[in-house]
Design a protein that fits this description.
Elements: H1 10-20, E1 24-28, H2 35-46, E2 50-52, H3 53-61, H4 65-88, E3 95-97, H5 106-115, E4 116-122, H6 125-132, H7 146-161, E5 166-169, H8 175-188, H9 192-196
Parallel strand pairs: 1-3, 1-4, 2-3, 4-5
Helix pairs in contact: 1-8, 2-8, 3-4, 4-5
The chain binds shikimate-3-phosphate.
Shikimate-3-phosphate binds next to loops.
Length: 199
């Protein structure tokens, strides 16, 4: 088994844990950015619990995401997503990976910004498309031209994702590398409290 922890300096891990305190770490970004894979790895490296909002939605509804979209439509899915995220944010610290649309919902985004440290996993269209085109599980991409749809979502959503506390570039690299960069970015994050009273 690989030991990804080995590549992350102990000091970064300790500092990232200190920065988080009791707060949650929330990963946001478009489909295919690697929110679940990176989130899970970061949680493992920081030794805090991991939860994925899409999995939690599927668990409580006992339906898959495509089934939920099919049966109830996107607005109902968004309402359920917002309720699940609200509940998941109540206890921390943990790492929460969210579905790509979650941060676009005003109520959910406000909660995430207030109750967690948010990390936008930003990726280029080509990287995202290479990843998402391998699977047909995304209801929003069941269109005539899914690559164009993804590109349109990128245009609409990137200005909103930019409100996240931190941005980490996701790219065609080992997930251990991106996870280590996320931890380093968290470790360097200056909390509002620290800004208010610099030592
Ligand atoms: C969505 C992204 C999906 C899932 C749903 C809607 C979106 O999650 O929540 O299909 O609106 O971007 P991933 O980002 O994990 O693919």
């Amino acid at each position: 088994m690989t030991q990804p922890q080995a590549s992350v300096p102990e000091q970064d891990i300790a500092e990232a844990r200190r920065v988080l305190g009791r707060r949650n770490l929330v990963f946001v970004g478009l489909m295919g950015a690697g929110k679940s894979a990176i989130g899970r790895l970061v949680a493992q490296m920081l030794d805090i619990p991991f939860v994925d909002s899409d999995h939690e939605i599927e668990r409580v509804s006992r339906m898959s995401i495509p089934e939920l979209f099919e049966a109830y439509g996107e607005p109902e899915f968004r309402a359920l997503e917002a309720r699940v995220i609200k509940r998941l944010l109540k206890t921390g610290p943990r790492v929460l990976s969210t579905g790509g649309g979650a941060f676009m919902n005003d109520a959910s985004r406000t909660m995430m910004l207030a109750n967690g440290l948010s990390v936008w996993l930003k990726a280029d269209l080509d990287v995202l498309w290479t990843r998402v085109s391998k699977r047909e599980t995304r209801p929003l991409l069941k269109t005539v031209n899914p690559r164009q749809t993804l590109s349109d979502l990128l245009d609409q959503r990137y200005p909103v994702y930019a409100q996240a506390d931190l941005t980490v570039q996701s790219r065609d690299e080992a997930k251990e590398t991106i996870a280590a960069e996320a931890i380093a970015a968290i470790a360097r994050f200056i909390t509002d409290q620290e800004k208010a009273s610099p030592s």
